[in-house]
Amino acid sequence: MVAGAPAFSVDAQWVRNSNGLRFDATHYNPRLAGAIALLRSSGMELRPLGEVAARVFIPPRFKRIYVEESHGVPFIQGSHLVHFQPPT
Fold first, then answer.
1. Residues 43-58, buried b or exposed e (16+ Cβ, 10 A)?
2. 10-residue block means of pLDDT along the chain (88 residues)?
3. pTM of whole model > 0.85?
């Protein structure tokens, strides 16, 4: 559990009847479900994003510059952390 993250439980029927049988907890967050219910009852027109956007994408991350320590602050990728041996 993430520190400070609220805990919640949901009815097993909600999980069984979900579209695609999703197991990611955020999909069942009661606050999210409440927000969606409010939107549906607001009378606002709700449409899927694909109907109002021609192209949706996640832009690439910024280019990382890998340098030796003498040229700046070295960058360590997450996959390299298991190989990192800090000085003792």
1. eeeeeeeeeeeeeeee
2. 70 80 80 90 90 78 67 69 71
3. no
